[in-house]
Prior knowledge:
The protein is α/β, with parallel strands linked by helices. Helix content is 43%, strand content 11%. Mean pLDDT is 84; it is low at 1-5 and 317-350.
Amino acid sequence: MANLSRNTEELAWWVALHSAGHIGPAAFHRLLRKFGSPQAALLSATPDALQGLPGADSSLLDSLTFAAIRIDYTRRLVERLLDRGVQILTPGDPAFPPPLAKLKWPPGLLYMHGRYIPADARSVGIIGSTQASAVGFSAAYRAANALAARGFTIVSGAARGIDTAAHTGALDAGGRTIFVLPLGILNFHPLVESHPGKLERNAVILSELPPEAPWETRGALTRNRITAALSERIFVAEAQLASGTLHTFNIARKLGIPAMAAVYRLNAPEGNLAAISAGAAPVRSVAELLHAASSKDAAPAPVQQSFDWDSADADIRADADIRADADIRADADIRADADIRADHQDHQPE
Length: 350
């Protein structure tokens, strides 16, 4: 699917600026405002021209210069992306997902395979640990399956564990799901042999990161804000205390997005309890989740007697059809940088 609003040459300059090192969403938009276009930013950047731009230093200038030098490579990269059906979208493109406009610094460029449709605004982001327990994995799968069967689009982060359960549950229900990648779109190869047709029809795969970017903490944190912004509701399936999951939850809170968190009879995850203490609605079953997801403020139904998540079929984990092929590391690897980077201007949602 070709990008209809910009030609290949113009897209090459957009991708070149977006892929330059030391440039996050805030710097990208500031450079565009200052220079007027990506090409001008790359070809006209000098120490004097960059003076007064927040964060501008010699490293930024070197990155811009190098990006301009390798423009021929970027032209070929754009052709590869378009040949593979990847759309290259700016905030002004009609296909750009409208919910991302709520971010203070929306993606300067978005790489997307598949089509975001108006119905995707009715969505639930399912988030949780990459090292999920069998019960947590099963809860995420069953939640996604039930929600997708009722027309909700499931948003998740394309990693192992809870994300895998969420995407799989949605596809198994014949529903829609959005993969929000923590790495470049050309480096993502999900194992989806059992769902090829459903992926083409029902999945959107998108990334804010440069197309060939590997996994790194910065990319995971960037992914978290996109996951939150695309979600009308957030469901915490299973989370640890200091984790990327709670980073996403906190972004959602700042954006005013209602949240829900699973409550288990036994071995309650500390991250879930923290989310509930911070305002997430506790949900004990699929029925409570469906009620909360459909209510205006994510309020659950009256408390039920049974804890449905605990009685779920843990064998769902063994039968899951999707496995993220990229080497996406566990939540523990995000923790070290999460607190430091969470307040960085390039990742602020407001």
